[in-house]
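Hi Prof. W.,

I finally got the CoA transferase subunit A prediction working! I wasn't sure whether to trim anything, so I left the full sequence exactly as given:
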Amino acid sequence: MPKLYPNAAAALDGVLRDGMTILAGGFGLCGVPVALIEAIRDSGVKDLTFVSNNAGIDDAGLGILLRTRQIRKMISSYVGENAEFARQYLAGELEIEFNPQGTLAERIRAGGAGIPAFYTKTGYGTAVAEGKETREFDGEHYVMERGIFADLAIIHAWKGDTEGNLVYRKTARNFNPVMATASRMTIAQVEHHVPAGSMDPDQIHTAGIFVKRMIALPAGYEKRIENRTVRKRADGATGNRAA
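And this is what came out:
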């Protein structure tokens, strides 16, 4: 079946349901599948569990689903820069499962590799280890963490071909590649859609076998920046460099 769909709503049709677990790629606002997130908002599904490094900001990324109260639980490693996230958590309206960032990445990678659990030193003796199995190996203490395998993964890529092969660009190659492998259904939004066979196989980051559906973003698609800072150039002129 063709993998390219005309828009995000069409790509998500028949996939979404209340109470499902969704992996959402990105880090901050970099590499975030915004078009797919907006389509999830418009669908009205609720009681969702999202696995993501963070929840975006108040008016972008997963922050828009927090505002509509469609997220019941977040599995994340960072929750700053989102006032609504903090408000819901402190009010007991949002369940949060905190993870050290490396542990979160490995939980997702393990899920994609069919590994149900693994042991890590990170978090031993802290609140992160509460309620989890711990073991000693060679005189060192470890915490058992479960792999994560979701119902759906939504990811953002720079380029994708008709077969679903993907290439990520720079920092957007963050959580997206591992998330693409760790779900029953992976849907990608791509900035540039190209014919099959037009990409160098050695440059492909995610093989098309993992991607079931995809959409091509329209020309002029806006990529938000969380914080833009500028500094003076050596000649005294003002630069316009994002950091």
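The mean pLDDT is 92. Does that look reasonable to you?

Thanks,
D.
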